Amino acid sequence: MSAPLIGAALQAVIDAGSGAYLADDARTEIRICAGTACHASGRVALKKAVDAALRERGLAGQVAVIETGCHGFCEQGPIMVLRPRGIFYPRVKPKDVPEIIDTSVVGDGIVERLLYKHPETGESLALERDIPFYALQTRVVLGLNGKVDPFSLDDYLAHGGYTALAKVLSDGDPVAVIDEIEGSGLRGRGGAGFPTGKKWRASRRNPGDVHYVICNADEGDPGAFMDRSVLEGNPHSVIEGMIIAAYAIGASNGPVAGYVYVRHEYPFAVDRLRFALEQARERGLLGKDILGSGFDFDIRINQGAGAFVCGESTALTASIEGLRGMPRGKHIRTAAHGLWGQPTNLNNVESYANVPWIINNGADTFAATGTETSKGTKIFSLTGKVVNGGLIEVPMGTTLRQVIFDIGGGMLPGRHFKAVQLGGPSGGCLPAPLLDEPIDFESLLAAGSMMGSGGMVVVDDTTCMVDFAKFFLKFTAEESCGKCVPCRVGATRMLEILERICAGQATAGNIGLLEALAEDVGEGSLCALGGSAPNPVLSTLRYFRDEVMAHVEEHRCPAGVCRALIRYRIDEEACTGCRACISACPSSAVAGERKQVHVIDQKLCIKCDACRQACRFDAVRVDTGVLTPAGRRRR
Amino acid sequence: MANNNGHANGKRPQGAEPKGSSLYEVLKGIDFERRQLVGKPKGTGLLGLVEKPEGGYRCYSCTLCERICPVDAIELEYCPEFPEELFDIEAARAAALTTLPGESCGAASACVMGEQPAAFQAPIDMKLLDPAIAGIRSGSGLVEAMHAAQEAYGYLPRLALEAIAEEMHLAFSRVYGVASFYSQFRLKPVGKYVIDVCMGTACHVAGAPLVLEAFSQELEVPVGDTTPDGLFTLQTVNCVGACALAPVVRLGDDETFGRMGPNEARRLVRRLRKQEAAV
């Protein structure tokens, strides 16, 4: 079918909509973030309050209230943005809603006291684009997140959605699409960074009865939620990317079928994606004869069930086939032998979401950002002990310092930066001297970490690096599928050594054993889960050896975390005798009269930290190292 | 099973008496000639070996001797006073399945009176499984069917898994293997309140292990278990993706609590307990 007809078909799809959605800045809108974090911070009550306030003022129906996907600034939830002016209200409480409506919706003022305050200057910032958190980002994939209604195909179309698909179908040249993607230098955003165009070309070349296109939304890395936010905020961009991929791989090459493998832990993402798929199907953007081009493609949702290893491509296809999610050796790639033995293209959510942008803006525009080998932007979920946690999209090559300190606002007051962990259980911890390292696939790998799916966890001096490494290893040991011995047994043995270190029972020889074991596990494991399982341990030994040796040689946990090596004590001068710790203690280990200094009975203390958190005067201290009976440190 | 109390003829063998403990000693003392001379029927000769020196039999009726004898010298006869009963496995299983806790199924099984038989399955409402079965018929995969079943029952009862296996023409062992592989599938019923403590990285750094421990102590159950009153189930989840609010606790499917600490955890349990007591 010729190009003008496809354009006309897309226009017909747009015209068939309700017309209720318009592009930005065309009318007054209240956009409330409905991401998981804002949901937990009370966006349901906020929405009710907004609806009620509008009804009271007779504005219901005139002012649109739209629940959008994640705005990314999760620390400040629930978030409300008033358009077209773009006024940003963080941490909105239902009781403040009437005032906001009166001032900023009915009138054209701003409620000064509710605005976001600049963390350093204390100045109130009214506009979303002025806030440093947003101002320093380059939002390509997240561009429409927080702008479009995830439940509305019309809204996506009003913002230029599905034009990339129409363009691809009009041109009618699938190989040209692959050339374009390859030319853009897009690399897989799931962690390994395999060139996307190359993968598509291999899938297209391999013969099969059916070609499968799978979207990997099994975001198992603890501490990473960018895929979830994209699916929750803008599901159609992923669907559009998948249709383009299917067209590139399958058109004039036999039938293609699509799957999205999404975590069951993300109920909002599953609901929104399911809804989006139905809408796309109803309006002729999925299914038979897409936009009258003669190309057929449909997508099914497959939910995971809580197995981290299913993020691995061969384990993922096994899971879709209804087997235990165990990977196989990848001497033959999924591009040749994937789902049900057919050629299968598997990309991450973020990779697909980049595709429409590349088609619309051209490969050269995309390749203009980033470094020599890593092009475009990358989304990170910045979490941990940092002021502005949330979703951050920056060009590749941005330094860690810019992300953590400029956008993330740095450390919490009174705390010092210790390390940043990238790449989840497969990555590693980088210390302060490496903060000026640019973020791209190669530099991170050279530093002993990896890009991973983009989890970025910042830790401060209250985190014990041995305990942190133990956490990741425990995770991999539990999530090991058990198929190959190096991973199943090796990870467990490594975990046991780390547990001994944390308990102060390790000898110096254990460290050498740990290193040797780490090498064997890394080399001998079947899939990337085992292959990268030793990374957190190796990077900890590389950059934080002093802290490890403090555990081994001095039986001391410098961060005061490892339970066997610490002791709680009440500071006599700081204690006011308020009894808060006494009522909080679950094991009745704290004793003392009102207005007198309290004492912790070390025999009863279970080191649960309840007293320290209950104390408002910072009087509960944590001691570590070999202790004399008086509770003083010997060294 | 009283079928093979198999000493030949059911009588005390009249063979040679063992002279010593070692096999050599024993064999030396056997009068092989005598068997032929006396013309005893097949099977009486060497069986004297099974006699213990102090009397009584060593034989456990394993019938191995009959099977491996190179000259077919041993032939078992069954004692007439113990009539042969074939073990009807189907009947025994049916009896075990219909037995309620505290009853005896009547079979001579290893179950101790008063205990729940190992194969006991609480009856479930099979109608609830219809959406899962319908899903399978419309082409959904095994994992999807299990999600549907878990949604219906709150866990995966064995009977439901058996029904799914039958519908999909799979061996039960394969279905069970898949169910036990994925951590989201539960094979035991859950309590009214399911508490999921997030153990993601951000939550770990913010102190999730302490929160989990506080829940475990306050509820007096280990992680993964349900309280005896059936109210609370304590679980962990790898990451719910609300890292900015770490540590995060999810209650059921709808409620999420952020910035939890051990004290908040205990308070939450006490509040829910009070709420339940008031109802």
Architecture overview:
The complex is a heterodimer of chains A (635) and B (279). Chain A contains 25 helices and 19 strands. With 635 residues, chain A is α/β, with parallel strands linked by helices. In chain A, β11 (377-384) and β12 form a beta hairpin. The model of chain A is unreliable at 628-635 (pLDDT under 50). A four-stranded mixed sheet of chain B has the order 2-1-3-4, with helices on one face. In chain B, α5 (130-137) packs parallel to α7 (158-168), α6 (142-153) runs antiparallel to α7 (158-168) and α7 packs across α8 (172-181). Mean pLDDT of chain B is 74; it is low at 1-21, 32-45 and 108-115. The chains are: A alpha/beta (635), B alpha+beta (279). At the A-B interface, α2, β11, β15, α18 and α25 of A face α6, α8, α9, α10 and α11 of B.
- First-residue to last-residue Cα separation of chain B: 54 Å
How many angstroms separate the termini of chain A?
Answer: 82 Å
**Separate helix tally of chain A:** 25
How many β-strand runs of chain A? Answer: 19
Which spans of chain B of ≥5 residues are poorly predicted at pLDDT below 50?
1-21, 32-45, 108-115
Q: How many strands of chain B?
A: 4
| Tally of helical segments of chain B | 11
- Low-confidence stretches of chain A are 628-635
Rounded mean pLDDT score of chain A? 87
Q: So what's the overall shape of chain A?
A: globular
Instruction: Please state the overall shape of chain B, judged from the principal axes of the Cα atoms.
Output: elongated
User: In terms of structural class, how would the helical and strand content of chain A be classed?
Assistant: alpha/beta
Q: Summarize model confidence as the mean pLDDT of chain B.
A: 74
